[in-house]
Amino acid sequence: VITIRKKKVLRDFQKVVKQGEYFTGKLMKYSLQKKAFKRYDRAYSIEIPKIVECPYQFLEDIKPTIAHIEEEVLNIHKNIKVTGTIQIEFKKKKYINYQPIIIYTNPAPYFNSHAIRVLNKSEIVDSVNKITKKLKENIENFQLEGSNWIFSRIMGMYIYTNKYTPLKGSSYIDLPPKIKNKKAIINIQNKDNQCFKWSVLAFLHPAKKDPQKVSKYYPYLNELDFKGIDFPEDIHDIKKFEKQN
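The structure corresponding to this sequence follows.
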């Protein structure tokens, strides 16, 4: 295990702000595991404090650390997916021959968040909130559905990351002959990366002749609002385009 010691708390992290919110607090020690699971590029283990009285407060306290890990990985990969996993031991009192004994969950259950996409540093705060919220919900559901289990201790806290490559529109690519010969698809012959824009305009304004030529759609270029959308667009830009139009 490679231990990464941080002397500064969230260095330059004030830049990562969303809706006026950013994380403050003590940065916990964490380590990058030498071997991650096959489905993850990187696996981080966060050191658990000696005394943890409440798992929900713990998940609040580690937000700066998760954010710092995400920032670190975003310096390596432009876009990532992040998953949080926490292992918790629970206990409860049980009577055997009228004598009370304490039993523990064995093995201690794991709780996982969804894999959250983080496309840039401005999305770190939101992603950390989503990860910790989902973990809290899973823990709460376990206790509600269980038989009087109460929190005992945290066995482990892990953050897994993967490089993420968003689907993007691009430029003109010739169709395979089998599809082209059906003459059922209009394939715009653009030389730029704005395939999405030309496809939308072609749908809204069908050309009777040579519909594959971009010049057919020049008169309608200012009809739609593509402000803030970089080409080639990310698949997530489609929702933004819909809101603007």
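The beta strands are 2-4, 30-32, 42-46, 80-96, 99-104, 110-112, 116-118, 150-163.
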